């Protein structure tokens, strides 16, 4: 079951795992006017006796899976039985397709009353075993809230313009946070009572430490702060999607500016006007969020939000000071190599890469290649692919209203992960899918343990190494100049993801450690930090001081971004090893995926024979290995 004392990870699990493109910004909202998915209806009350909602109004929703149609699934029963899955044996899963899942509004009043009933049982001194049984049933109820919360998040991503869904998401988020506070209060009562050893018998010392922090935040003020945080996340996407500029009697959206009507200096002027307006609104919103997060950290008993978030939100076994040391090493060794790759393409390479980045329908075209790759990786990856295809567990959309980027969510009640990708075209769609399928594979293997225990940095190794290990397959259908360009682009993207992770972590660590009083100061600090990593104005298509507003993580999951850097370094190490011993490197990759979800990031690296990203020599050696792989810049 999903222990609610570990729900601090809930936001991290629904964040957008955005692929970092050559432009250096996270993906924008894609506007392609076709294939608009239908949306799930909001159901007022759950079906009787805990039954699954019946299919109906949303049967025509369009969900397109990489890997093909039902005919490609073969005769395997892995989707239903998952006989090889899980680190502790098979993970049993009910064979429900994503298209048959419906958002069902949980009964807030009933769950709240359930918490009160268990609390009264403790007060009345009832038998500890009976309390344990009722406590387990309560956790199952909370699991359903968790599932509906994340299911609705997917539907909101499919259509960011659906105001009713957005309002419902805000409502259930508020309810869920309130229930979490009440459940933490109940845990505190049990922890102080006669039935502690029976009801909380599987808790570790870390569980009780987190409980103490949660108890400090169990009041109405905290609920209000959490609710406002959720609203800010929703407002970010509302502003980002709907901002327009008035120019010469016309109202222009981002879509209008990118439509091809404007070129050169005119387009540059319009983009600047657009981002000035975006920055002015989002900047004020971010200043509010900074204040809220500082207040939450103070309530939790921490001197710094950085320390609080690293420990409580992400359960990291490294500190902001460790990140700072890594970032200094990154500044020292990576920018020169990254800048050598930037703009290093010859004419034929550039032409080939341009075509590869714009080719339509690549996930469908390359489905057999993706399947061949899954078979090569082996272990449970082919079974995970079978389950994804048979259960239609990927939402791949190029609709005009989809949320940009990609993410993978685990639906606890269904015991399955679901992939969401807003398609942008070209081979990047293949990589976006593979990135998310790396997460999917990890969830397939570890199930609920990956939600409650797994290090987010370890999960990002699974996704980023999965992209890199696929690289040789591009050679099977690309000509020599195109493949050469793609190799360079991938290495640039990988190095840039390390640098970008450091830029945004240093930026956020700064704003939470200092009193930043204006949007202008936010802009100045970001531009200075970005430039210190060799990422100057030439890397951005918008004024550098505004570029930070393109990263939704800053608003939705503060201080998450460093995990892209810490995980990309071992992912690159696995890839470099594959150039000499591919089978051995795949073995290391599978060892990471099958590592104990309860192991820390550093422990997994040590167990799998991977170097620490916090050591300067690791960064130095990695850059040299990348240089050897790509060859000297022309």
Explain this structure.
With 634 residues, this protein is mostly helical. The protein is 60% helix and 4% strand. It contains 27 helices and 5 strands. The protein has a 3-stranded mixed β-sheet, sandwiched between helices. Strands 1-2 form a two-stranded antiparallel ribbon. The longest helix is centred in the middle third of the chain and has 36 residues, at 264-299. The N and C termini lie far apart (56 Å).
Structure in a nutshell:
The chain has 634 residues and is mainly α. It has helices at 10-13, 78-81, 108-123, 128-158, 163-191, 196-199, 205-216, 220-242, 254-257, 264-299, 305-313, 320-341, 347-358, 362-365, 367-377, 381-391, 427-446, 448-452, 456-469, 471-474, 480-513, 519-532, 553-556, 562-580, 582-593, 601-607, 616-630; strands spanning 244-247, 250-253, 394-397, 406-411, 416-422. The protein contains 27 helices and 5 strands.
